[in-house]
Amino acid sequence: MRFGSSLCTLNVGGRRFCFSTELMKHLPLSRLSRLHRCVSESELLELCDDYDRDRNEFFFDRHSEAFSFIMLYVQHGTLRFMPHMCELSFYNEMLYWGLESSDLQLCCQRRLDERLSDCFVHFFPEEDLRDHEEPQSCWLERIRRIFEEPTSSLAAQILASVSVLFVVISMVMLCASTLPDWKTAETLDQHSCYSASQRKRGGLSAVCIGWFTAECIIRFLVSRNKCEFVRRPLNIIDLLAITPYYISVAVTTLTGENSQLQRAGVTLRVLRMMRIFWVIKLARHFLGLQTLGLTLRRCYREMVMLLVFICVAMAIFSALAQLLEHGLDLESGNEDYASIPAACWWVIISMTTVGYGDMYPVTVAGRVLGALCVVSGIVLLALPITFIYHSFVQCYHELKVRSSRCSHSLSADFIN
Questions:
Q1: How does pLDDT run across 126-149, given as a tens digit for each residue?
Q2: What's a GO cellular component annotated to this UniProt protein (predicted)?
Q3: Which of 85, 230, 291, 407 has its CA 20 to 30 Å from the CA of residue 310?
């Protein structure tokens, strides 16, 4: 094989495309960019259907016209569905070459979401690049899968169940600590050093924190990319949830159990309440929470657009409400609308159709404005909902496919 050749040929369904070797390395198509890493003909044949050593030609038994459209995306950065071709078939070609649905234009993404929803089709994309590279140590990879993929094995499922149990225990303790009876017991405990109930609560909290800390450290040690691990949102949340406990312990050690800072420290109470972030750890084990997070990440533009709509409408309606209810008659006007910031509260609860009733217009003009505010709020909130819904469906399908692949792996391991 002449990997050093300056030119190589791709034969896709009988149609030839010529590329330089250097260009092949930087193509956004993962299947082609992996060709130069192959060191044997057997590895090449895992990526292509045939190889001509003399011509340095790679043969792919795929749709040639679909590949031409994909090459237009490589050249111009715009990918749309090929006319007169089924969306699902074109999507299958995209997955073969290493592209995802997010590479499509928004209009084509919506068409694909509709077809996937109607046909309930699940595609299995190509394996990641790491599956073709030299694997890490076997036991490190197995530990990583146990901690990162809850459905990959029986041990991973057991570990995930234990982690969920500790999260539930932590949340129950956090909620119970705000009850009046619990606070009374804590006050009594402060007058007796190291009471039995205090030791039990502290010991249970220490066990939960110890579990979360050990889990986070192990996942960091066995991760493939340490920098990427630190940047992940869920890992940042884990750190925010664990750190306050150690800060509280450090402050307690430095200032004493019954110090004035311990009894009245607002900072410590805020740090303890940050343990509520532990509930987000459930996203690792529940598909619905993962789908919600992925949808919000992909639809951030639509969410920002929605917030802009609400802010503009809030500015307009609050100014008008303050003028109609208070500004025209300063002596006998509605004091609830004495300022525009105060009117903003009424606007937001009206646009979202919450309507607490704590403040409301009393003039005829104000009530007409309130009706317009409610109707406009319904319309503005409904505008981006369709796209967010389709994105949610797409994210759910992708995560479900990923979960199904892990389940198949679990079944195979169990049979073997």
A1: 444 444 444 546 777 778 778 877
A2: voltage-gated potassium channel complex
A3: 291
